[in-house]
Amino acid sequence: MKYEAVVFDMDGTLLDSVPAITEIVNSVIAETGMEPKTEDEIRHAVGYGIEQLLRNIGVPESSIEILCEKVADSYEKSSADAISCFPGVERIIAEAEENGLKTAVLSNRPTEGLRQIVAEHMAHYGFQSVLGSAPGKPAKPDPEVLLQTGKVLGVKPEKLVMVGDGKPDIMAANSAGAEHVAVLWGNCTRDELESAGARNFAETPEDVIRFILQ
User: What three-state secondary structure class fits 31?
Assistant: First the structure.
């Protein structure tokens, strides 16, 4: 096969987590007197980590640091039952692993909360790397995190496919010299993904499977 590994984004790609994220963010920003945000507003603000999410929805810069900590803490404490996988996406993971491809998760969600989600939802899969964000560390769209994941997997960038729904996923893959699949069931439109350099699109999980197994 052409590829040796698949790296999955989490939120908006594997998990439909916007409702849970919206609830957490609204509970935190209420402390500042801000009006609650809709799921659609949150959907268009996610993808670059908590700090940028808060900026995107208009949180004052002076409040970013403390609210970022509170959102991250709520992420870690929130139940995995509050989120669910998109229909059919687990078949992508299963098909990849059954055909000998290595798999990993790379997200801008905080690492501890990310690993909790994987443990509660996807422990039966053989992810060889689960990497999230951490204060002071690079995050997507910085290609370094994808290159780091490739090193853990023992796979060169050109043999790796990043599967994601966000502009940071596409930008990281292109900058790292990896391939990508932009899924259209997540948080970005096709036009938004094309503006980030996306060339390969998937409307269904079956489209992803066909691409990674070529």
Answer: helix
Burial class (CB in 10 A: 0-12, 13-18, 19+), 65: exposed
Measured in whole angstroms, the distance separating CA 140 from the mean position of its chain's CA atoms is 9
Alpha-carbon torsion (147, 124, 107, 204), positive or negative? positive
What are the structure tokens assigned to 8, written together?
A: 């999955």
**Which has more confidence, 20 or 151?**
151
Say if residue 135's pLDDT is above 90: no
47: left (phi over 0), alpha (psi -120 to 50) or beta: left
Backbone angles phi, psi at 6, to 5 degrees: -130, 130
In this structure, are residues 141 and 175 in contact, taking their beta carbons and an 8 Å threshold? yes
CA neighbours within 13 Å on the CB side: how many for 153?
A: 31
Residues whose CB falls within 8 Å of the CB of residue 95, separated by 6 or more in sequence, listed in order: 209, 212, 213
What mean pLDDT, rounded, does the chain reach?
A: 94
Distance CA 103, CA 122 (A): 12
pLDDT one-digit tens code per residue, 137-151: 999 999 999 999 999
C-alpha 160/C-alpha 50 separation (Å) is 26
Cα(190)–Cα(142) distance, integer angstroms? 21
Helix (H) or strand (E) holding 105: strand 102-110
**pLDDT tens-digit profile of 71-116?**
988 876 665 566 789 999 999 999 999 999 999 999 998 898 889 8
